[in-house]
């Protein structure tokens, strides 16, 4: 009986390892490839500030490793930026606008809940005329989850329809609907609703300024290519969490995965598994203080003799990898 229990424990642990194995740093020989920088253009999305004063990113935007196998799997798609803090820290509106939603934490099992597990949620609508991925927009939304409360000072509470300016308090940081004190912060373009076909969330770093020791767009990226199956490993420092896109050209076929436009991502699978259609996205675990951001893309079934690979950040800066001609 005792042996059986040990055996079962080992089996369960083995399965866990099998299912949840995060990306690990690859050491690879890139001498057979040319690697050259590519540059894009930074876009100004208006005057903003970060939503908290002390900025500690505990989870970046995009495909995320969950560290343990939950009921939904080892991965999910993180639609925002997590900023860890202390309960009661003031949360600020990142720009001028109008309070669009004030949602108190939904009761467990509530049939209608706009933000399941979001806890206390505030949403601010910001009027802005801009283009994103060539599509015109007239507004965007900033979304603040897990708020401790909606206290905005002077015994006032945040109210729907209330106008705010850049830096208006909208509530206090907390852990409602979450397991630790942090602000889950999102930017959604044009529409607030997330459906299986449309996901308006983009990397919030498009809308936030570089901050010393927090977010620095230095374009210092490392890439590693290995085969069987064709795997592209990307890493950057923990201050450069704006990875956005991989494009691979092989045998006349182009595959592109873009975290913000969701091109190449199967929106029906983003919450529960690593295979996103024709690619397996395998991010490493990330917490505040993790020294580097690391993510693998595996392309099973794609001809390994690729002609070109691009990795790009949100601004289009990145690297181009081509095989050296024989
Ligand atoms: Zn989050």
Automatic annotation (TrEMBL):
Keyword Transmembrane helix recorded:
no
Q: Which PANTHER family match?
A: MUREIN HYDROLASE ACTIVATOR ENVC, PEPTIDASE-RELATED
The name of this protein is M23ase beta-sheet core domain-containing protein
Enumerate the spans annotated as M23ase beta-sheet core domain.
77-191
A single Gene Ontology MF term assigned here is:
metalloendopeptidase activity
Q: Which residues form the signal peptide?
A: 1-25
Tell me what organism the protein belongs to: Merismopedia glauca CCAP 1448/3
Stored InterPro entries:
Cell_wall_metabolism_enzyme, Dup_hybrid_motif, M23ase_b-sheet_dom
Keywords, comma-separated and alphabetical: Signal
């Amino acid at each position: 009986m005792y042996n059986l229990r040990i055996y079962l424990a080992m089996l369960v642990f083995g399965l866990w390892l099998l299912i949840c194995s995060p990306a690990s740093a690859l050491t690879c020989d890139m001498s057979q490839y040319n690697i050259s920088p590519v540059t894009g253009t930074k876009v100004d999305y208006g005057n903003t500030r970060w939503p908290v004063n002390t900025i500690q990113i505990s989870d970046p935007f995009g495909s995320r490793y969950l560290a343990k196998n939950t009921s939904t799997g080892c991965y999910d798609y993180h639609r925002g930026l997590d900023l860890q803090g202390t309960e009661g820290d003031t949360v600020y509106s990142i720009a001028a606008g109008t309070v669009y939603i004030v949602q108190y934490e939904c009761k467990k099992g509530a049939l209608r809940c706009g933000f399941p597990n979001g806890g206390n949620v505030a949403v601010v609508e910001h009027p802005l005329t801009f283009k994103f991925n060539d599509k015109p927009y007239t507004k965007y939304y900033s979304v603040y989850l897990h708020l401790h409360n909606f206290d905005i000072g002077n015994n006032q509470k945040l109210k729907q329809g209330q106008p705010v300016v850049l830096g208006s308090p909208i509530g206090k940081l907390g852990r409602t609907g979450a397991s630790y004190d942090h602000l889950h912060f999102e930017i959604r373009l044009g529409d607030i609703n997330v459906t299986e076909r449309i996901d308006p969330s983009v990397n919030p770093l498009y809308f936030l300024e570089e901050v010393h020791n927090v977010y620095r767009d230095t374009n210092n990226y490392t890439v590693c290519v290995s085969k069987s199956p064709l795997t592209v490993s990307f890493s950057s420092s923990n201050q450069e969490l704006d990875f956005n896109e991989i494009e691979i050209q092989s045998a006349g076929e182009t595959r592109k995965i873009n975290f913000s436009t969701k091109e190449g991502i199967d929106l029906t699978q983003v919450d529960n598994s690593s295979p996103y259609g024709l690619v397996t996205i395998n991010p490493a675990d990330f917490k505040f203080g993790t020294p580097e951001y690391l993510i693998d893309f595996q392309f099973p079934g794609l001809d390994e003799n690729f002609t070109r690979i691009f990795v790009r950040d949100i601004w289009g800066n990145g690297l181009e990898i081509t095989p050296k001609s024989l």
